[in-house]
Design brief:
By secondary structure, the chain is α+β, with helices and mostly antiparallel strands. Helix 2 runs antiparallel to helix 3 and helix 16 (588-600) crosses helix 17 (611-628).
Length: 648
């Protein structure tokens, strides 16, 4: 009897089980890791703006002899089920049969319950499916390339120029990064119309990078997520009495516009917990929270203003905030707000009371997380007709160019010149396009930005790095420069400014464009292509003529030819300005140059982009966008346009 009792006791119970099965078994050709001749890292990502999550995938690309492997999807299935219940079936079965005869229209659920009691039922199922390969593989005697997930890869992820954070991919080479967790400085997200997210991984000493540009609306959403996350972190620290950490988190959220964080930071200033007591700062932050419509902050502000606790007594506005708080607070605090409002009203004259009531009636909350619009040429807000599409260097994987090499230079902040807005960003993103679209090996791309792009640094890169990389008559050379340019007094010579360039010593402190072209060609380059986001014209040499979002060039220059087989694709004619493009946080020319390399410039749809096609695309879009801003800018191509830049 005991076994029977024990078995009956488990009838109808809930159980969990797990099993593994193979699906979609097939044969694939791969290069075994141990036999790979060479490997490189592949890194791609996408951004989910509503959740603030960057999803990354990292893999190794292997070159070598192909082997044939068995490939399959390994599915780990977890099932939650309810066991059969014979006792329940014996009790409900006859009743179900009788119901089927007497009231067939009402028996559906009864029959279902009876069936589940007899055979059990599945309550839930969860599957995890992973691609696998098995076996040793059969050598095929052919050379090829294959990709495998890189589990455990350590990837550096950062926003703009902020210090990156290292994260680790899972066993399948995937990981999700919450971008709002990476922000520690509010300046990273403030006054931004777009943000560059960079990810990088190193393999065998070679660094692979990818970047994603977050557009205006994405930045605004990330600002909100970061502010809310910081406020929540601050509350957690406060619960453990770590008020120093709480103040740090609350300040980040407050600076980014979270009303709750602003109010909590004001409380810390008021009480002197986690930071020095400061009633003026408490009043300032409480005011910002109240203006956003936070009712608890409105009540606290009313109490401060009515008592003069923040060093400022203002009963008219104290009444306004108490009145607004009374209209929105819940029962517990509403009585306090009503009492404060009525108490203040008794001390106000008829005119002051009428003014306060009018101000309260016309109050509209002002969110600090609204999207910031770009400044137009007149200084006002410039509405974009449509969102600026982000740049995606990973969109096109061009055919490899084993004999190609690229030198990329971006100088934004200068020692002695005004800033060339977004120039360093142009260079960093173009590096990704050089590797992905132009097909240049990462170790054959050299990037110089900011203080690393001094005159001596650039000359050293040309003489001791680029020249040895050139194989006589076989190497395609690409040079990208974003920054300031200048012409000689007579307009005959054109110069590119390094980080430490000086207008007064132009010939000695700048890079002569023509001499650089000649030196590269004499080193034996098969071809030379220069992309120059700079210009050589302007009103005078003085700072007073420079416009904030224009990359200034100072003297009139004359257009010239370049020796074959060189070609120059430049941002503008030599009598025009080269503009920046604030909505994209790039140079106007650089943005459309790279957007064209994403495949948009392929006019005839043959999966090839020639230099001529790229020029046509950039010219059309740059001229249109510059015209919207009341300017003229026409990209210029000097040299042959038949050269194929990208093929896929």
């Amino acid at each position: 009897m005991l076994p029977l009792v024990l078995s009956l006791s488990s009838c109808g119970g809930v159980s969990k089980s797990q099993y593994v099965e193979r699906r979609n078994v097939q044969m694939v050709e791969l290069v075994p890791v141990a036999k790979a001749r060479s490997t490189r890292a592949l890194l791609g990502g996408r951004y989910e703006a509503p959740r603030g999550i960057l999803t990354l995938a990292v893999a190794k690309e292997l070159d070598g002899e192909l082997h044939q492997f068995e490939s399959y999807d390994e599915a780990t299935v977890q099932v939650k089920s309810k066991a059969p219940d014979p006792v329940k079936f014996l009790l409900t079965g006859p009743f179900a049969a009788l119901s089927a005869v007497l009231a067939p229209q009402d028996t559906g659920q009864i029959l279902q319950d009876s069936k589940e009691a007899l055979v059990g039922s599945e309550l839930g199922r969860r599957e995890n499916v992973v691609a696998r390969t098995g076996g040793e593989g059969k050598p095929l005697g052919r050379q090829g390339t294959s990709r495998i997930p890189w589990g455990g890869a350590r990837i550096q992820v950062g926003l703009e120029d902020a210090p990156p954070r290292e994260v680790t991919a899972d066993a399948d080479g995937n990981l999700n990064v919450a971008l709002y967790e990476l922000v520690s400085d509010p300046g990273t997200l403030q006054n931004r119309d777009s943000i560059l997210v960079r990810a990088a991984v190193s393999l065998n000493g070679a660094r692979t990078e990818t970047s994603i540009t977050l557009a205006q609306a994405d930045v605004a959403k990330l600002r909100q997520l970061t502010a809310a996350y910081a406020a929540e972190q601050g509350r957690g620290a406060a619960r453990t009495s770590d008020f120093t950490a709480a103040a740090r988190h609350f300040r980040l959220g407050a600076e980014l516009g979270d009303a709750d964080a602003q109010m909590l930071l004001a409380n810390l200033y008021r009480d002197g917990r986690g930071l020095p007591q400061n009633h003026a700062e408490s009043l300032r932050w409480m005011t910002r929270a109240a203006r956003q419509g936070e009712p608890a902050a409105q009540l606290a502000l009313a109490e401060l203003l009515s008592s003069g606790g923040g060093g400022q007594r203002d009963e008219v506005h104290a009444y306004v905030w108490a009145s607004l708080a009374a209209a929105r607070l819940g029962d517990k605090q509403r009585g306090r707000a009503v009492s404060k409002r009525d108490s203040i009203a008794r001390h106000l004259g008829a005119r002051d009371l009428a003014e306060a009531q009018s101000l309260a009636a016309s109050f509209t909350p002002a969110s600090e997380n609204a999207v910031t619009l770009a400044a137009g040429p007149s200084g006002g807000a410039e509405l974009q007709a449509e969102p600026v599409p982000p740049l995606d260097p990973s969109r096109i994987k061009g055919t490899r160019k084993p004999n190609a090499v690229a030198l990329i230079i971006g100088v934004e902040e200068y020692q002695r010149l005004p800033a060339a807005q977004f120039a360093a960003r142009d260079a960093r993103v173009f590096r990704d396009f050089a590797v992905n679209g132009l097909g240049i090996a990462p170790d054959r791309v050299k990037l110089l930005v900011g203080a690393d792009a001094r005159l001596l640094d650039i000359q050293k890169a040309l003489d001791t790095w680029l020249a040895p990389e050139i194989r006589d008559g076989a190497t395609d050379v690409y040079v990208f420069f974003s920054g300031h340019g200048l012409a000689s007094e007579n307009g005959r010579n054109l110069y590119l400014f390094p980080y430490d360039g000086d207008r007064a010593l132009l010939e000695k402190s700048a890079i002569d464009r023509a001499a650089t072209i000649d030196a590269i060609l004499k080193a034996g380059a098969k071809s030379l292509t220069l992309f120059l986001d700079t210009c050589y014209s302007g009103g005078t040499r003085g700072n007073d003529t420079l416009i904030a979002d224009i990359r200034p060039v100072i003297i009139r220059a004359r257009d010239g030819e370049v020796p074959s087989p060189a070609a120059v694709l430049a941002a503008s004619r030599n009598d025009q300005w080269s503009s920046s493009f604030a909505p994209a946080r790039h140079g106007l020319f650089s943005y459309y140059l790279m957007h064209g390399l994403m495949g948009e410039a392929d006019a005839d749809g043959d999966h090839r982009i020639t230099l001529g096609e790229l020029h046509t695309y950039a010219e059309r879009h740059v001229r249109r966008e510059a015209s919207r801003r009341g300017r003229e800018q026409t990209p210029v191509l000097v040299g042959g346009g038949d050269k194929v830049l990208v093929a896929w």
